[in-house]
Write a structure and sequence with these properties.
42% of the residues lie in helices and 15% in strands. By secondary structure, the protein is of the alpha/beta class. It folds into two domains: 137 residues, Aspartate Aminotransferase, domain 1 (Alpha-Beta Complex), CATH 3.90.1150; 275 residues, Aspartate Aminotransferase, domain 2, CATH 3.40.640. The strands form three sheets. The protein has a seven-stranded mixed sheet with strand order 4-10-9-8-7-5-6, with helices on both faces. The relative contact order is 0.15. The structure holds pyridoxal-5'-phosphate.
Length: 455
Amino acid sequence: MHDDAPNSWESRAEASSFYGFTDLPSVRERGTVVLTHGEGPYVVDVHGRRYLDANSGLWNMVAGFDHPGLTKAAQDQYARFPGYHAFFGRMSDQTVMLSEKLVAVSPFERGKVFYTNSGSEANDTMVKMLWFLNAAEGRPQARKILTRINAYHGVTVVSASMTGKPYNSVFGLPLDGFIHLTCPHYWREGRADETEAEFTARLAQELEDTIAREGADTIAGFFAEPVMGAGGVIPPSEGYFQAIRPILRKHGIPLIADEVICGFGRTGEMWGSLTYDIQPDAIISSKNLTAGFFPMGAVILGPELADRMQAAADVIEEFPHGFTASGHPVGCAIALKAIDVIENEGLLENVRRLTPRFEAGLAQLADHPHIGEWRGKGLMGALEAVQDKATKTPFDGALSVSERIANTCTDHGLICRPLGQSIVLCPPFIMTDAQMDEMFEKLENALKQVFAEIT
Ligand SMILES: *Cc1c(COP(=O)(O)O)cnc(C)c1O
């Protein structure tokens, strides 16, 4: 499997590339999968092997890997106007049209859009906006950011500080003033004698207590993914957003929905904020925004934050922030097409149509004695492996159970993602019934094989 020849793609990749978010022992043992192209939901490697990519690339290639309409939108825009910025009072027509479209499809009746190149930068931008806004409004001390343990908001210094993962300690992060509340995962975090409603109430109380302890006037905002993605696909506990929304409102703390994964249909509605009736003050978007065909992120401000940001910027007659490629015309043209594809080519309907089949497949695999829980919403789901189902005891970390399962899947032509001791599935919106059946069949075989090996 692993081609060690010095001129192999595997050796060249390892010699020349420094890997991020990669299990290095797996790469050393198995080599790198070097890909050349994709066909629908499949990707193909340099040896001609085909893999069903059950993670839509990195959650984002929702229209598959060869959508001709998206390719054509890119080609046409490259031919017309291949690049421009959005500084100094200039921007491309595509940028204007996309902003109008994003506000129109957002849950807001009106609003304003600011562009970045990534989700991390969009979260960073939102934090800078809140700091800028509070300073202009005479509250320069209102800088603290509330997020949750297991949240994933990105990798820049600020968005990594928002991310609630232990691995960021290797960078000496989080920065001061980033506060992580309990993850709203009832199955894992709920106490033995606690109902789900009591669990949710405890988390709401924790938020109240945290605000009281820190001082409401020191807090700039609360950021939350509707369903946590890279934390292991964790839908909120029942009534979670309904419990925390009024508390944040009472204390004047904006609620920012990080919709980088959930946005544009992943949960079966256009926004996770609609699925859970979150009523955010702003939305962070990326990934699906361009169906993964262009690196791009966006901050979508709802009416109140848009007005307050405008007033704050008017004070110094400028918002001193932006990226060279913010609002790139090709990215905007692709995003306009991506939204059109999701709305008008039946992708959103297909998410809804496939969801029962997806849930049934997950539920069936969760019958296995070493699967503790299945969870998910729409077309994002996870299976969590456990050594003991009754006590929810995880496997010994040294067994690398989820990496083994994912590697075995890869051997059988299925790409899925190990996350902690869970296996995450996030199929593209274009999947057919037959492809979904193929996904579950390959995953089931891999689970059986790995559990037989380690137990
Ligand atoms: C991926 C992700 C980000 C970061 O986006 P990048 O484009 O990788 O910087 C932020 N928030 C969420 C919820 C994400 O899933």
